[in-house]
Amino acid sequence: MIQRGRGPSVQEAARRREVARDMRSAREKLTSTSGLERAFDYELIRAYAQHRAGAVIPLGLLGLAVAGIASVWTLPVIAMAWGVCLLATVTLSTLLTRRFLAQDPAQVSVWRWRRTFMAAEFLQSTAWAMMVLVGASGALTFVLFGLVIVAAVATMLAATLPAAAVAALVPLCVAALSLLAVSQDVNTMMLVTMVVGAQVFFMGLARRVYAATVEALQSQAEKDAIFGELEQAKANSDEARRRAEEANLAKSRFLATMSHELRTPLNAILGFSEVMKNEVFGAHVAASYKEYAADIHDSGLHLLNLINEILDLSRIEAGRYELNEEAMQLGHVVEDCRHMMGLRARGKNQTIHEFIDATLPRLWADERALRQIVLNLLSNAVKFTPPGGEITIKVGWTSSGGQYVSVKDSGPGIPEDEIGTVMSSFGRGSLAIKTAEQGSGLGLPIVKGLVDLHGGNFQLKSRPREGTEVVVILPASRVMDTLPAIEVPGEAAPSQERRARAA
To answer: Residue 124: phi, psi to the nearest 5?
Structure first.
């Protein structure tokens, strides 16, 4: 990680976030009273309180309906007393739930409210269980049916609080079993067994609802965590972009300042070293002085070219490189560049083959930029092609109506895993490092940037021991013959007058 200098990888960062999330979850579970995270404990109790608060009216109406029907088999006073007792327990439970919902979540004692709701559920279910005293004498089937309904409602409302659901179900089961003391015939025993079985089934269903609620809360927590990470990543990205913009601005200012500061003494170095190299004011006393002056002049030229390349690349990256477009012949530019690099190629006994289509129309492009593109490509081809090798230059049409320049050499080629390196700024392949070839590693990035400015396409094809081919494609929109003719408004009328006079 330190050698890369770029911080942890994406996989390592994801693994660290997952470990931190697991540790946080384990710590929350250790401090929880239900084995879940503390936030889940509150959310489950809150869901229970909301369900109970929303069911107060239906429960009250159900209690009044049962009391009214029970008055058929028992005294109205007894049925009314039971109904008042039931409504009191429902009201008490509602007041407790509303008080809980009104409290600040940060100040809620989860374990205390859980016990309070358990007691409220037990009290309310006990009131429902008293139904057996109201209708057991003459409406056994009606009482059992009512106990099943109440068990279903109670377990579903208290599903998110399993302890409260158990507390609500126990009095109802006891009430159903107590009916066996009134009647022990086969029908009664079968009905009681079915009622108790139904209540146990509702309890299992409530456990399923509880598990589904916990899964939903976990999914929501994971989604919230992802949103939080995305927000944090966005904040980090914005901060990184701000710093990058500041660094880019500082770099531009530095390059603008240093270019002037470096070029001023370089001009003096180049001028005086050329005078000394050419022995303008007389021959040197020692022959080595002439060689030293030539070395100084060549080093100065190399440094000046390096400064110019850095400035060109910085302008291209900043979008400040302005194209000076004009009509030009691509074949003529390539021929001039080939002639300039011909001396270096002959010095290494290299052969350059040309295949230039002489019928190509003119292009609307920046001649200086295209000349720099071709010179960089030819310079790389001559540099990395071994002595006696061959270099092939092709200029012609593309299938889409554009024009292309192809430079192919018979050099050792570039490994596939190094193509991204040579295309990056200051990137140099292993071959250039091993052979100690001079270069800044800016040639291909500058070429690609200039091609992109022209709206073209840059392709690099290379394989080890098979050579390298670089293709620059210029779009059809820059070919002059494909552009529509421009009509000048003031020229139509005079031409018609001249034809009329001639007639």
So the answer is: -70, -40
Residue-level pLDDT at 497: 45
Residues 53 and 18 in one domain: yes
Q: For residue 2, tell me if it sits in a domain.
A: no
Per the document, the length of the chain is: 503
pLDDT tens-digit readout, 108-145: 888 888 899 999 989 999 988 888 876 555 577 788 88
CA dihedral 145, 151, 156, 162 (to 10 degrees): -160
Q: Which two tokens stand for residue 396?
A: 């012609």
Q: Which domain holds residue 299?
A: 268-317
| Domain shared by 298 and 384, yes or no | no
Total domains in the chain come to 3
Is 441 domain-assigned? yes
Going by their DSSP bridges, the two strands 390-397 and 351-356 should be labelled as: parallel
The verdict on 474 and 374 lying in the same domain is yes
Residue for token pair 């159903």: 176
pLDDT digits (tens, 9 = 90+) for 137-160: 557 778 888 888 888 888 888 888
Give the pairing type, strands 403-409 and 363-366: unpaired
SS3 breakdown of the chain: % helix, strand, coil, rounded to 5? 70, 10, 20
DSSP track, 99-147: HHHHS-GGG--HHHHHHHHHHHHHHHHHHHHTHHHHHTTT-HHHHHHHH
For residue 56 the two structure tokens come to 């107060």
Nearest to 129 by CA among 148, 108, 155, 105: 148
State the Cα–Cα distance between residues 146 and 76, nearest whole angstrom. 18
Angle at 175 between CA 138 and CA 160, to 5 degrees: 130
Whether residue 492 contacts residue 503, with contact meaning beta carbons closer than 8 Å, is answered with no
Could you tell me if 147 and 193 lie in one domain?
yes
Give the C-alpha separation, 199 to 176, whole Å. Answer: 10
Please state, in angstroms and rounded to a whole number, the distance separating the CA atoms of residues 345 and 67: 110
Q: What pLDDT is stored for residue 337 in this prediction?
A: 87
Question: Nearest to residue 405, comparing CAs of 481, 467, 457, 362?
Answer: 457
Question: How many other C-beta atoms are found inside a 10 Å radius of the C-beta of residue 205?
Answer: 14
Q: Do residues 137 and 175 touch, judged by C-beta distance below 8 A?
A: no
> Could you tell me what percent of the chain has a pLDDT over 90?
8
The amino acid that residue 109 corresponds to is: S
Asked if 111 and 85 sit in the same domain, the reply is yes
Q: What are phi and psi of 284, to 5 degrees?
A: -75, 150
> Could you read off the pLDDT of 373-411 as tens digits, one per residue?
898 899 888 888 888 899 999 999 998 889 999 999 988
